[in-house]
Structures are given as C-alpha cells and as structure tokens.
Fold this sequence. Notes:
By secondary structure, the protein is mainly alpha-helical. The chain is 50% helix and 5% strand. It has nine helices and five strands, in the order H-E-H-H-E-E-H-H-E-E-H-H-H-H. The relative contact order is 0.05. About 6% of the residues have low confidence.
Amino acid sequence: MSAEEVGGYVRLLCHQWSKGGLPNDEERLGRMAGLIGSPCLRYVIAKLTLCEDGLLRHPRLERIRAENEAWRQKQADAGAKGAESRWKKGKPIGDPNGDPIGKPVATPLATPMANEWLPSPSPSPKEKAQGASTLSLSIEDQAHPFHVAFGLVLPESLQTLPCLEAVKTWIQHKQEHRHGYKPTGLRATLTKWANEFTSATLPAAIEHSMACNYAGVFHPNQPQKPSRKSKPDLSAMSEEERVKAIMKEAMQ
C-alpha cells in the first residue's frame, strides 16, 4: 500500500472504532478518509466488509473490539468479586454503630488537669542595679506620665521629660529604618539604658547615635562604627520599592 492508501485506511479504521461502523457511501467514505477524487479510495474500501445492518466494517477490528470488551468485563467481575469477599470476610461482632456516648470523655479528663495546672502567680518585683526599676506590661501603665510603648514605662532613674522625648524619638527613628522594637526587646533596652546612662546623659547619647546612624545608643565620647545595614525586608515593600531597593543594592 502507498502512503496515501495507508493514511486513508487508518483514518477509516479510526472512524469505525469510534462510531461502530462506516456508511456504505463512497462519497462520504472519501471525505472521511481524505481521499476524495483519489483512485486509491476504492482500493481502501475493498478491505471493508458490508454487514447485515448495512454498515461497512473491518472484521479484524471488530474481533479486537470484542476481545477488549470481554477483558474489561472480566476485570470488572473480578473486582466486584474481590470486594464482596473482603466485605464478607470475618463474622459480625454485633451492631457496628454501637451505643452513643452519653457523657463526653474529655470533660472528666480535662477538669483534674486544669485544677492541677493553675496559673502561676506573678513574680515579685526585684530592684535592678543602679536604680533600674522593674518594667510592666499592665494596662494601667499606659496612662503613666512616662509611658513609652507596649505598656512599658521609663525606669525610675530616667523619668524626666527630656529622656521621655529622646526615647520616643529613638523608637520612631528605628521604626523608620524598619528595625522597630517589640515588647521584649524594648523592655531589655530600657533596662540596659538605666544601667548605662543617667537622666542627664541619655538624651545627648540618643541624639549623637541618631546623627551617626548607630544601630544602638552609645556615649558621645565612645564613638562606634555605624553598623552595617542589614538587607531590607523585600516582602514588606511594594513592587516599586522592591525594584528600587534591588537596584540600589546592585549599585553599591
């Protein structure tokens, strides 16, 4: 068979497989095979057999169809039989649903545990060295005249208006550089400042550290090299800000 004949022959077989048969019409077969007006068409049609229902079929293809359907049915029967044997395996042990639980199980178990694990009392305040006082996160402290943030107040040794203004300015400065404090970190920082500075030296130290772009607060007479800037948090930026940050980093 030529390439043209093979192509038309295969196309007719595909139509037969999907439709169950081919019309006994040479013109329609020519369109289906892509052989309209070709002398190869009659040669290809000759390989088909006219059946009792008036449709053309290739006998071998129908045998393959029957074998395929028989195999599929065999597999379906085997699957159903296997499922039935698995479900019927073993003897029933009573009502599978059983009786509903009238009383929740978690209640008697959770109550003793809750009584055993009572909340621990708050630790008693401890005096800090060099006048540093204990810091609190209570709501009442938010109305304190020296409230800083997160319910934290200035240590007693630093409770002056210049210190309060300087500390709030420093916190705002850190937030603008995307290095804002959280409650635990701010608590530790205030305690550290109370141990290292006095109410007279802290405002000048904060002003000096901001001017020098220090990561922390240092005495003016103890200059520190500016800390190396960490990479900005790109996930918190807009698309335009991310592009600018990446370009700036590449140019440095």
